[in-house]
Design brief:
Rossmann fold; 313 residues; mainly alpha; 2 domains; Histone, subunit A
Length: 313
């Protein structure tokens, strides 16, 4: 687990080599075909050597959520285990990790009229205003959402007004049947300023690699729009708006970099709320030796039903 650009994929591939692992992606954007550069998807060469389950399994028009992920991930874990391989899950989508381990309560149905009313309010009053409303009623969810994250703010308020329950309460889990022990390793680089610089450097490299052209090709399909969950991924939504003429190229770059940094901050916040987490403060392969040590100790536990004692840091 870990924030964007922290080097999770490289470390996971190295662990898979050493422990005969089967890699399973835990990323809400990597599921989509045709979204390769901006999602930092493993290259074709990397995927050939280290196949990742749950990559390229949906078209950007198709919905995918935490419940779908849980079903798919459990199936992949069972398949890997049956082959004698160690399931290694890697990614940055915290809700997916939590849904897998704890399950998700069923979300209440949302009334169409109520959704239209909230949509109108968020357009007229602005996302920060509704974020303040959410903070009063569900401070846990509000704390992990940016005040301008209109899509998620809208969804959280929909859940509140539909059933009276906060989305954070529902996400604590309902169907928690999870037949595995887990070792949770989080890459949380101590030097955040260096991470933020790397985030900007990586995004500019993505632009050099053809990210604008990738988004343009998606836009020219004609069956996609900026409101689809796939196209709201960081980087994609800013480039889409740039192609729509909403702002110029330098402003697009600035907004995308800022959004990426904010996303990393939210990932740090989410991880701090996780239990039994082993935190590694280096970047990527700098963490290989301790990660190998922790995994060896975990797999070598004499009682397979016991929990390894993990740090709360």
């Amino acid at each position: 687990m870990g924030p964007t650009a922290s080097g999770k994929t490289g470390l996971a591939m190295a662990l898979a080599e050493r422990f005969d692992g089967a890699l399973i992606s835990v990323d809400s954007a990597l599921v989509y075909r045709g979204m390769d550069i901006g999602t930092a998807k493993p290259t074709p060469q990397e995927l050939a050597r280290h196949p990742h389950a749950l990559v390229d399994i949906r078209d950007p028009t198709e919905p995918y959520n935490a419940a779908s992920f849980r079903d798919d991930a459990l199936a992949e874990m069972a398949r890997s285990s049956a082959l004698g391989k160690l399931p290694i899950l890697v990614g940055g989508t915290g809700l997916y990790f939590r849904a897998l381990e704890r399950g998700l309560d069923a979300m209440p149905a949302v009334d169409v009229a109520m959704r239209e009313r909230l949509t109108t309010e968020i357009k007229t009053l602005g996302a920060p205003s509704l974020h303040a409303r959410l903070r009063e009623r569900d401070p846990v969810t509000a704390a992990r959402l940016h005040p301008n994250d209109s899509q998620r703010i809208l969804r959280a308020l929909e859940i509140l007004e539909s059933g009276g329950h906060s989305i954070s309460t529902l996400q604590r889990g309902g169907d928690g049947d999870f037949p595995y022990q887990v070792l949770k390793i989080a890459l949380m680089p101590a030097d955040r300023k260096a991470l933020y610089r790397d985030i900007e450097t990586r995004f500019r490299q993505m632009l050099d690699d053809g990210l604008v052209e990738e988004v343009r090709a998606l836009r020219e399909r004609g069956d996609l729009n900026a409101e689809l969950p796939a196209l709201r991924a960081v980087g994609y939504r800013q480039i889409w708006a740039y192609l729509e003429g909403e702002y110029d190229y330098p402003e697009m770059v600035r907004r995308a970099v800022v959004a990426s940094r904010r996303y990393a901050k939210r990932q740090y916040t989410w991880l701090r709320g996780e239990s039994r987490l082993l935190v590694l403060t280096g970047r990527g392969m700098e963490n290989l030796a301790p990660a190998v040590g922790y995994l060896r100790a975990f797999l070598g536990a004499p009682d397979p039903t016991s929990q390894v004692s993990l740090s709360e840091d």
